[in-house]
Amino acid sequence: MGALFGKSKKPVSRVTEQDKAVLQLKQQRDKLKQYQKKIELNLERDRQLAKKLLSEDKRDKAKLLLKKKRYQEQLLQNTDSQLEKLEQLTHDLEFTQIEVQVLEGLKTGNAALKKVHDILNIDEIEKIMDETREGIEKQREIDEMISGQLTSEDDEAIEAELESILDVADQLPDVPEDKLPEAKAEDIPERPQRVKNKANKVAVEA
C-alpha cells in the first residue's frame, strides 16, 4: 500500500547548470538576430521614404528621417558587437564542458589504472617472473640430460630402426578396392537338420 500511494521519486535530470547557461545564451543570440533583421528592414524603408520626400521637395522631413536612420545604424553596429560577444561566450562555455568531460574521463581512467596496479604489485610480478625463469631453466637442464645420455651409436640405431619401420610399411600389400561379389541364395548350401530326439538316435545305432 505504501509503495502504491507513496510519492514517486523524480528522475534525476541530466541537464547541468552549464547546459542551461548555454541555452540562455543561444536564446539571447537568436533574439539579437531577429532584432537585427527588424532594424535592417526599417533602414531600407526609411531610405526609400527619404528618397520619396526629396522628390516631393520636402527636404527637412527627409533630413529628419535620415537622422533617425543614422541612429538605427548605430544600434545595428552595437548589436553586431553584442552578438559577437555572445557567440564567443557560448563557444567558451561549450568548450569548457568538453574539458570537464575529458577531465572526468581521465579521472576514471586513473582510478581504474590504480586498481590494476594495486592488484599487480612489483613484488608479485618479480616473483612470477622468477618462477617462470626457474621453470624454463629446469626444463632446459632436463632436455640437456636426456640428449646427453644418447651416444652416436644410439643415434645410428634409432635411424636404422626408423628405416626398418619404413621398409616394413612399404612391403605390406595394398588393400583391394574392388567390392566382393554378393552370394546368391541358391548357391548357399543347406545346413543338415539336427536330430531332436537323442533316444531315437541311440536305438537306431543299436
Explain this structure.
- This protein is mainly α.
- The chain contains six helices and no strands.
- The N and C termini lie far apart (108 Å).
- The protein is elongated and about 130 Å long.
- Helix 2 (17-55) runs antiparallel to helix 3.
- Residues 195-206 have low confidence and may be disordered.
Could you say which overall geometry the principal axes of the C-alpha atoms support? elongated
Task: Please report the distance between the alpha carbons of the first and last residues.
Answer: 108 Å
Residue share in helix: over 70%
What's the SSE pattern?
HHHHHH
Overall SS class: mainly alpha
Largest sheet: none
What percentage of amino acids are in beta strands?
under 5%
CA radius of gyration is: 53 Å
Count of individual helical segments: 6
> Can you tell me the residue ranges where pLDDT is under 50 for at least 5 consecutive residues?
195-206
The multimeric state of the shown protein is: single chain
